[in-house]
């Protein structure tokens, strides 16, 4: 990102701003002028000035300040910029503020008022001069010659001094590390960059883009599979190098463009945003440029550089050999520039997109100014406070910045919440919880509390009106939704079927050779239902038998053969392993003949169960259900388990839209955690809602689950075959807030091992 380091604040035409342009230093001799001096300077002397007492002299301006002409504001008014080189901050001044500051050497408010009113069409008062003086003092722009001024600066320094905890917090959230003073390097690169900014270079890039896309389209399949082909360490090295090069080029795009327009680039380096490294370039001098298009060019230069790099990488991919370089070129051509546009072009954070939008609108300090409008709109909507607008803007512009403020708040809340969760998972749990609390407290809770504090201070202004009635109604609804135990049902993934039922699945990739039953046939336990053939499995079994026979012969010959005798016990263990492999393969081959596990009826025969059809491993083929009452199982998490008790009402809603709801009664509740899921249809690996990890022998739930058994179902609506769906179980009513607090405390206690 191009980090424009600037101060927040300004004065001019009633608008707080933060801009800077070009110019030289100004001195601040503030000796109070006598009437003779004023007459010699052509300043009118009023009767009030002659009759009054000696005017109070104004403090001097600092001699290192710079006052520069700026760009015109959106309404056409001129602006100027005051530059504080000591803190590298910039302050935009309107016409009246500029006239006052430029005449500060007159020494008294009365002299400045008289001079401005005489020489311009403005009509200012001593109060305006005092406001400018307060602004200058607040930002330490006045010389500190008197003991009072020195004492004031000492107080400010002490107030700004951070304690150890706040210092750690501030530098944990954001810290910059300058790595390079780029001015000499930028000067050497300037001639080459001049060509990159020419029309000839633009036409060249366009031609290369067309050529690169044309070559890639001829090998589109190979291009789209590039990353999969280089997913190893070499590919990662190429990807890492490409990503780093793209980001360095991005920052040099900002720096070289700023240098081209005469700006100084004092530093380039890396910034850590919540310990996430982000490259930055100090382009503060861009605020000195009076031409808005130049500032826009600096802001867009980084993204433009990555787009040019993407064009070159697209063309290079067609000529590079297979390897890390090609993987890196693929990343540059497809991913990095898209990610850059998605992140840097966003105006909601202080990245390139923010400064581009700020320059395009001609609104420095866009976030702060938009937030002021957003707070005003929020207070009006909640309490009906008709505060004056923070500044005068056209109606359409005011609506835009207000909407922009709310969009920024939503975007930042989402981003900061994601960063907080990322930090939580990066560290060991106790530290992760602490950092999570810091993130949420600093970025989310602190701004909210700051606004709530303003509401409390203005509580005396509250009136019973339409807005407060609406707010009270919304608060009542929120209170009811959070505090009242209105939600009693517990929803859980479930299955419903026969008391004794078994689904049959393909044990391996195979071909159906014979089908002996049809849907609805009555069968007995052990009866053959279908036969499968797996040539690869047969070949594996044959090889395993040959290896087992060879090892058995070696074990039998071992006592009589000196060479085999050296194998010792290891040879016998190899033979035992081979025997186990043969036994396992024989069992798998035996399962290729599907037999009825129970006496009952065949249901839900799959369409793929036909002779000659090739089926996949684990594919469901048919079900066999035994006669008798139906029953179901549901699986709930630990938080819901305590709300349930036996005998509760259960409503099973099948996934099939045509199936009616089934009413049952909750029976046994397993209080022990489910070790493995025995309902494959509900597992995520087979498209179900329960997240599982598949091992060789079982489906292991990723989160603690507990089984509920429901029975005594309504016979009139029972399904013929096993069905999956959702069980709504009537439980103890608990408020949403109570459940959230309990879940949070459970997470904290388990993660921190309290």
Can you characterise this structure?
Its main location: other. Its cofactor is Zn(2+). It is a multi-pass membrane protein. Residues 242-462 form the Peptidase M50 domain. Pfam families: Peptidase_M50. With 754 residues, this protein is an alpha+beta fold. The protein has five domains: 2-160, no CATH class; 169-363, no CATH class; 375-462, no CATH class; 490-498 and 628-751, Elongation Factor Tu (Ef-tu), domain 3; 501-615, no CATH class. Helix content is 48%, strand content 16%. The chain contains 24 helices and 23 strands. The strands form six sheets. The chain has a six-stranded antiparallel beta barrel with strand order 8-17-22-19-18-23. It has a four-stranded mixed β-sheet with strand order 1-7-6-5. Strand 20 (692-694) and strand 21 (699-701) form a beta hairpin. Helix 17 (395-426) packs antiparallel against helix 18. The longest helix is centred in the middle third of the chain and has 32 residues, at 395-426. It is extended. The model is unreliable at 1-37 and 47-53 (pLDDT under 50).
């Amino acid at each position: 990102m191009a980090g424009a380091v600037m101060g927040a604040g300004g004065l001019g035409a009633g608008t707080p701003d933060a801009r800077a342009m070009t110019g030289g230093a100004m001195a601040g001799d503030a000796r109070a002028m006598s009437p003779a001096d004023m007459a010699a300077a052509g300043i009118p002397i009023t009767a009030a000035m002659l009759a009054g007492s000696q005017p109070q002299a104004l403090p001097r301006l600092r001699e290192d300040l710079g006052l520069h002409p700026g760009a015109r504001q959106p309404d056409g008014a001129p602006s100027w910029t005051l530059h504080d080189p000591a803190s590298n901050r910039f302050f935009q001044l309107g016409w009246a503020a500029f006239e006052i500051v430029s005449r500060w050497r007159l020494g008294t408010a009365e002299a400045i008022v008289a001079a401005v009113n005489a020489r311009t069409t403005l009509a200012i008062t001593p109060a305006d001069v005092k406001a400018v003086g307060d602004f200058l003092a607040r930002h330490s722009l006045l010389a500190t010659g008197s003991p009072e001024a020195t004492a004031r600066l000492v107080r400010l320094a002490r107030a700004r001094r951070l304690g150890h905890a706040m210092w750690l917090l501030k530098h944990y959230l954001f810290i910059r590390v300058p790595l390079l003073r780029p001015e000499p390097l930028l000067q050497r690169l300037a001639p080459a960059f001049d060509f990159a900014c020419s029309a000839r270079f633009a036409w060249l890039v366009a031609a290369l883009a067309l050529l690169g896309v044309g070559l890639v389209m001829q090998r589109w399949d190979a291009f789209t599979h590039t990353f999969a082909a280089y997913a190893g360490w070499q590919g990662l090295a190429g990807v890492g190098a490409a990503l780093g090069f793209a980001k360095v080029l991005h920052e040099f795009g900002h720096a070289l463009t700023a240098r081209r327009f005469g700006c100084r680039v004092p530093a380039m380096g890396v910034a850590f945003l919540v310990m996430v490294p982000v490259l930055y370039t100090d382009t503060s001098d861009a605020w000195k440029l009076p031409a808005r298009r130049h500032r826009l060019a600096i802001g867009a230069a980084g993204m433009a550089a990555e787009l040019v790099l993407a064009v070159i990488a697209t063309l290079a991919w067609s000529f590079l050999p297979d390897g890390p370089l090609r993987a890196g070129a693929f990343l540059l051509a497809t991913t990095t520039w898209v990610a850059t546009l998605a992140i840097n072009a966003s105006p909601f954070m202080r990245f390139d997109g923010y400064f581009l939008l700020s320059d395009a609108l001609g609104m420095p300090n866009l976030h702060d100014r938009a937030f002021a409008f957003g707070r005003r709109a929020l207070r009006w909507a909640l309490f009906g406070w008709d505060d004056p607008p923070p500044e005068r803007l056209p109606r359409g512009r005011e609506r835009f910045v207000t909407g922009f403020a709310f969009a920024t708040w939503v975007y930042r809340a989402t981003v900061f919440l994601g960063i907080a969760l990322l930090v939580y998972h990066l560290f060991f749990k106790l530290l992760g919880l602490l950092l999570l609390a810091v993130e949420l407290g600093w970025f989310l809770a602190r701004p909210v509390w700051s606004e709530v504090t303003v509401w409390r201070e203005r509580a005396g202004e509250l009136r019973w009106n339409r807005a407060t009635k609406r707010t009270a109604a919304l608060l009542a609804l929120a209170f009811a939704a959070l505090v009242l135990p209105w939600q009693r049902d517990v929803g859980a993934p479930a299955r419903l079927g026969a008391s004794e039922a078994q689904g049959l699945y393909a044990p391996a990739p195979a071909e159906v050779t014979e089908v002996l039953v049809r849907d609805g046939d009555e069968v007995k336990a052990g009866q053959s239902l279908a036969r499968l053939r797996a040539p690869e499995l047969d070949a594996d079994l044959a090889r395993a038998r040959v290896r087992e026979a060879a090892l058995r012969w070696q074990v039998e010959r071992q006592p009589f053969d000196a060479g085999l005798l050296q194998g010792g016990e290891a040879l016998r263990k190899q033979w035992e392993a081979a025997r186990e492999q043969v036994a396992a393969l024989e069992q798998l081959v035996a399962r290729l003949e599907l037999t009825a596990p129970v006496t009952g009826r065949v249901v839900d025969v799959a369409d793929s169960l036909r002779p000659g059809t090739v089926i996949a491993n684990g594919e469901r083929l048919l079900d066999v259900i035994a006669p008798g009452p139906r029953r179901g199982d549901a699986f709930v998490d630990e938080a819901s388990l305590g709300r349930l008790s036996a005998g509760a009402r259960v409503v099973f809603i099948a996934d099939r839209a045509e199936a009616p709801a089934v009413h049952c009664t909750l029976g046994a509740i397993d209080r022990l955690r489910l070790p493995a899921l025995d309902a494959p249809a509900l597992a995520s690996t087979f498209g179900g809602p329960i997240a599982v990890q598949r091992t060789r022998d079982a489906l292991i739930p990723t989160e603690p689950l507990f089984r509920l058994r429901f029975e005594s179902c309504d016979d009139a609506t029972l399904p013929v075959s096993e069905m999956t769906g959702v069980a709504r179980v009537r439980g103890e009513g608990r408020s949403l807030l109570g459940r959230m607090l309990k879940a949070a405390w459970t997470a904290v206690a388990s993660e921190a091992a309290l």
